[in-house]
Write a structure and sequence with these properties.
It is built from 26 helices and 15 strands. The protein is an alpha/beta fold and 849 residues long. The strands form four sheets. The protein has a six-stranded mixed β-sheet with strand order 9-12-13-7-14-15, sandwiched between helices. A four-stranded mixed β-sheet has the order 4-8-5-6, with helices on one face. The longest helix has 62 residues. The radius of gyration is 41 Å and the shape is elongated. The protein starts with 8 loop residues before the first helix and ends in an 8-residue tail after the last helix. It binds adenosine-5'-triphosphate (ATP). Adenosine-5'-triphosphate binds next to helix 17. Keywords: ATP-binding, Membrane, Nucleotide-binding, Transmembrane, Transmembrane helix, Transport. This is ABC transporter domain-containing protein. Pfam families: ABC_membrane_2, ABC_tran. Belongs to the ABC transporter superfamily. ABCD family. Peroxisomal fatty acyl CoA transporter (TC 3.A.1.203) subfamily.
């Protein structure tokens, strides 16, 4: 029969379809739908494929962009990062802009309050360097103290993470029990040839696998997240305490921090420690991180197996009967006893390893810091020797730890893997082999009389497999619990390190130092300066600078130094500087010039007497040290961060005018603009770095500036202009220098010298002594002076220079410079004279002459 194909679906439905048989009608509809689908699929599929391909290409391009552009060099980010942070109106907190995965994430930082530090002080008494390390009472005390910092609140993020972590630990234990039971059922169904039961069991097996794997991953994730949260808390706390206005970072660097307990071995070197050597980086980076990792892992390593043991034991107790349960506990007790006996002092070893790593790291840091100097002196070989020695000490220690671990590991494995398994077999066999001894063998044997032999075997197999799995899990849990003894010991080592850092910083922050007895070697009448007895008064805020009866003493750093006491450089200094009294401090090397600046800046204590000065910073006192300091950041960041600059209404035009005053106007264009970020200490020359320092001074316009040899690398013409400009800005100069040419910018002269001998500084030389040194010429001129004290008796002498002679001094100075220039040419003229003489005599003249 011929089949007429209808032209439309409606006509088909109305006419033809009704005439067709049901099977034909069905075939036709299927063919029609297939045709429609066949027509539509290619269209959709091609657009889907195209979209997919486009997305893939876009993703690839984005990935490539991220790979080539580090977060710091994308133009958009660079623009945004001009603001390193946004200050908040409260004055304390700020929002840091942190580049992260190609974006800027904002992190609000609120400074730790001083009240919190005060409330924690009692929890951090200084650590006795002879303290025995290990899991002892002291360890728990230290841990509680450190945890107060790591867990600042019971309802905070860390507590939430801990609860969540505990939930997953519990879930994993419950799932383990379920898996053990299921395991038994599957084997039972297999033994009794129950295919349906077996397949059902297998299905459940996969169902359980999903939450089990998820739980395991979550446990690992939460453990790491918890460790990071603890580390963040500790790090912020330490940063705020380390880098605060009390200059704890400087004092720690001087070696004034409390010491860490070290192994007391014969010939170990008197217990000098890293804290006393002033290296905080190992403590703050590695030790804090290890402590947090170890603590978070320990919670999982102890919490989970402990939970496992409780649950598995209770599960097994029902199956093994009372005798088996007693046996189980006897086994735990015996294992714990054996492992306690076999555990070496892991805590002490961990602390020693951290200390040795710190020493090695400090050596590497020094080379990085002083690389140029080391290279000029060709000191690489020597530094390598020092570094290798430090590394070898570390490697030898680590090797010793490895060796110690061999017998311990063997004991641990033997006890936990083999002894426990053997004990497990014995316990399981009890109710089976001696039914009279064991009251019950669980559901498998309870209805033994009513089931056939096959069923009995199947039930026993189920019981055996479940119990064996539980026992294996129990052995694993027990093993981890016992291993965690070693982890706990190691944690005690890290805890002692973190505690030492915190207690040390707390002590420095509160100026608490251990009291040292007066050394017997000190002569009668010679003052003994101990950091525990600092009696000087310091008043910050007055409009003048004053040192009254203040001894200039260099503090003795470190444990060994403290016993010697500080060194007195100047017995008692009296100096008052009012606004406009520009004072130049001179004296031989090592006499204590910079030490005066350190005491005024409060880097060193005012041991006795009175020190008064305006506050530090803008409008107050500004210090420019010998070595210029250039922070990491953009060129603009140097006087102030961009955020601070904006908030003070300062402009780039102002910065440029300041740079012109220090003859650095070329810098922004040379370095690629104000936003360029570089390691400025490597990029700028010595003189440029010092001029940058002066630029900062002009930017901040303090009322007093203590300048310590801060222009020694600047040419004297530019130096002069800068000093003049500083004075024009109304800054009173207290300058420490060896350059007599600077005298003309000052109206007072503080001369330092050895009180026992009449020292000959360039400025007090007699004319005869200075015939070959023109710098001494300054004193050849009769400058009117009013000396305050005889230099030889006091070690210092303050002279007021007659202000009316200032102009005259300048003239003389120009003359000196001119004569110095002419004298510099003398050698050349002498050579020329020699040549002319030889020529006249008809002698042969050397080519090079
Ligand atoms: N950090 C320190 N710890 C202990 N003693 C120090 C410390 N710094 C310096 N001293 C001691 O103080 C003495 C004076 O040092 P200071 O830096 O004040 O000398 P100076 O007069 O500025 O010398 P120079 O002209 O060489 O710069 C030094 O000889 C040194 O013995």
């Amino acid at each position: 029969m011929a089949l007429t194909i209808p032209t439309t679906i409606s006509s088909l439905s109305k006419s033809s379809l009704s005439n067709l048989s049901a099977s034909r009608r069905q075939a036709l509809i299927v063919a029609l739908i297939s045709a429609i689908l066949a027509r539509s699929v290619p269209i959709n599929a091609s657009s889907v494929v195209k979209n997919w391909r486009d997305e893939r290409l876009a993703r690839k391009a984005e990935r490539k962009r991220r790979e080539t552009e580090t977060p710091l060099n994308t133009p958009a980010l660079e623009k945004k990062l001009v603001d390193l942070y946004i200050p908040h109106p409260d004055g304390g907190s700020r929002t840091l802009l942190v580049p992260h995965m190609g974006r800027i994430s904002k992190v609000r930082i609120t400074p730790t309050s001083s009240d919190l530090y005060a409330s924690h002080l009692a929890s951090f008494p200084p650590l006795d360097p002879t303290e025995k390390l290990g899991v002892n009472k002291k360890f728990w005390k230290m841990l509680v103290a450190v945890l107060k910092v790591a867990f600042p609140s019971k309802t905070g993020k860390e507590a939430f993470l801990l609860v969540l972590h505990s939930f997953f630990l519990l879930s994993r234990t419950v799932l383990s029990v379920m898996v053990a039971r299921l395991d038994g059922r599957i084997v039972r169904d297999l033994v009794s040839a129950n295919a349906a039961g077996f397949l059902r069991g297998l299905g459940w097996w996969f169902v359980l696998a999903i939450p089990s794997t998820y739980t395991n991953s979550m446990i690992r994730y939460l453990e790491r997240k918890l460790a990071l949260a603890l580390r963040t808390n500790l790090t912020r706390y330490v940063h705020d305490l380390y880098l605060n206005d009390n200059l704890n970072y400087y004092k720690f660097g001087l070696g004034l921090g409390a010491s860490v307990p070290v192994e007391q071995k014969k010939g170990a070197g008197g217990g000098a420690s890293e804290a006393s050597a002033g290296t905080a980086d190992q403590f703050i980076t590695t030790d804090v991180a290890r402590f947090c990792d170890s603590l978070a892992a320990l919670y999982g390593n102890i919490g989970k197996p402990f939970l496992d043991m409780v649950i598995f034991t209770s599960q097994l107790a029902a199956a093994l009967g009372p005798l088996g349960t007693i046996g189980l506990f006897a086994n735990y007790g015996f294992t714990a006893w054996v492992l306690k006996k076999a555990t070496p002092a892991f805590g002490k070893m961990a602390a020693t390893e951290a200390r040795l790593e710190g020493e090695y790291r400090a050596g590497l840091g020094r080379i990085g810091r002083d690389g140029e100097e080391v290279a000029f002196y060709n000191g690489g070989k020597r530094e390598k020797g020092i570094l290798m020695a430090a590394y070898q000490r570390l490697a030898k220690h680590v090797h010793t730890v490895f060796k110690v671990r061999i017998p311990y590991g063997m004991t641990e494995d033997f006890v936990i893997k083999y002894l426990w398994s053997a004990a497990g077999y014995c316990l399981m066999s009890l109710p089976i082999l001696f039914p009279a001894a064991g009251k019950t063998l669980g559901p498998a044997t309870s209805n033994q009389g009513t089931m056939g032999v096959g069923h009995e075997v199947a039930a026993r197999t189920e019981s055996y497999v479940s119990n064996r799995r539980l026992l294996l899990s129990l052995a694993d849990a027990g093993g981890r619990l016992m291993y965690s003894g070693k982890d706990l010991a190691e944690l005690s080592g890290y805890t002692s390190r973190v505690y030492a850092l915190l207690s040390s910083l707390h002590a420095l922050n509160n100026n608490i130092y251990p009291e040292n007895p007066r050394p017997t070697s000190l002569e009668e009448g010679q003052p003994f300066y101990d950091l525990s007895k600092v009696n000087g008064r310091v008043i910050l805020g007055p409009k003048h600078l004053l040192l009254r009866d203040v001894p200039i003493v260099a503090p003795a750093g470190g444990v060994a130094g403290a016993e010697r006491g500080g060194e007195e450089l100047i017995h008692r200094l009296d100096l008052r500087v009012e606004q406009g009294e520009h004072t130049l401090i001179t004296g031989p090397n090592g006499v204590g010039k910079t030490s005066i600046a350190r005491i005024v800046a409060q880097l060193w204590p005012t041991w006795s007497g009175l020190m008064e000065r305006p506050i530090h910073g803008e409008g107050g006192t500004f210090f420019l040290p010998q070595r210029p300091y250039l922070s990491i950041g953009s060129l603009r960041d140097h006087p102030h961060s961009f955020a601070e600059m904006k908030s003070r209404g300062r402009t780039d035009a102002e910065l440029m005018s300041i740079l012109e005053h220090v003859h650095l106007a070329y810098l922004p264009s040379r370095e690629g603009g104000w936003e360029t970020r570089k390691e400025w200490k490597d990029v700028l020359s010595g003189g440029e770095k010092q001029r940058m320092g002066m630029a900062r001074l002009f930017y901040h316009r303090p009322s007093y500036a203590v300048l310590d040899e801060c222009t020694s690398a600047v040419s004297s013409d530019v130096e002069g202009l800068m000093y003049e400009h500083a004075k024009n800005l109304g800054i009173t100069l207290v300058t420490i220098s060896h350059r007599p040419s600077l005298l003309k910018y000052h109206n007072r002269h503080l001369r330092l010298g050895d009180p026992t001998t009449t020292s000959q500084t360039p400025l007090n030389r007699t004319p005869a002594a200075s015939t070959t040194n023109l710098t001494g010429l300054t004193n050849l001129q009769p400058i009117p002076q009013t000396p305050s004290t005889p230099l030889a008796a006091h070690g210092w002498q303050l002279t007021t220079l007659n202000s009316t002679s200032a102009e005259e001094k300048k003239e003389l100075d120009h003359e000196i410079e001119e004569i110095e220039r002419q004298l510099g040419e003398v050698e050349g003229w002498e050579k020329r004279l020699d040549i002319i003489g030889k020529k006249l005599k008809g002698e042969k003249i050397d080519a090079e002459v």
